[in-house]
Amino acid sequence: MKKYSRRRGTTLLEVVLVVAIIVIISGVGVVSLGSMYAPYKLNGAIDSVRSAWADARARAIEEGRPYRFAVEPSGSSFRVAPDQAEYWEGNDGPSDDPNGKGLILEQSLPSGVRFTVNGDGSSSNLPDEPGPDVVTEKPVTATNWETTIIFLPDGTAREDVRVTFRVRGARTTSIQLRGLTGNVSVHPE
């Protein structure tokens, strides 16, 4: 005659309780990580705009022609191209440019980050997460892009500009371009 030993197992209640605890802990962790990520997205957005400004200024000096930095009116994308009508009437610019093919740079800010130029706009229109990190596919026309800065061939810009960046969960930050010197400074608000 065989004797069966009783094995101790887990009940359905114990399994459900452990799963519930794991779900609660992971939910709290996701919320915490999301709030820690916002400052990195803000800094990335600031760095990408500063880099675009540096590229536009350098190209204006090297090529001896003005470069334009323009933003999308919704405040999520930006574009750099020579300040010639041909570069702003189509996506690729002219094929027979006597100065050579100019730099065309289009980028979007990280999802959830928005910027305003010279104090226009408000923080109440910040989008909820998530969103695509790509430039919206639309034709390049004067109505789709708002000129913000014109970099001149002597290394200056036509005027001073202040761009404010906002994202949920991070402190609002501005960058300011001094037109005469090309100096860029960062100002947490």
What would you note in describing this structure?
The protein is an alpha+beta fold and 189 residues long. It has a single domain, classed as 3-Layer(bab) Sandwich (minor pseudopilin epsh fold), CATH 3.55.40.10. 30% of the residues lie in helices and 22% in strands. It contains two helices and eight strands; from the N terminus they run H-E-E-H-E-E-E-E-E-E. The strands form two sheets. A four-stranded antiparallel β-sheet has the order 3-2-1-5, with helices on one face. Strands 4-6-7-8 form a four-stranded antiparallel β-sheet, covered by helices on one side. Strand 1 and strand 2 form a beta hairpin. The radius of gyration is 25 Å and the shape is elongated. The termini are far apart. Residues 126-139 have low confidence and may be disordered.
Task: Briefly summarize what is shown.
It contains two helices and eight strands, in the order H-E-E-H-E-E-E-E-E-E. The chain has helices at 12-63, 85-88, and strands spanning 67-71, 77-82, 105-108, 114-117, 146-151, 161-166, 173-177, 184-188.
CATH topology: minor pseudopilin epsh fold
CATH C-level category:
Alpha Beta
Question: How much helix, percentage-wise, in residues?
Answer: 25-40%
Low-confidence stretches: 126-139
The termini sit apart by 82 Å
| Radius of gyration based on Cα positions | 25 Å
> Strand-and-helix sequence, N→C?
HEEHEEEEEE
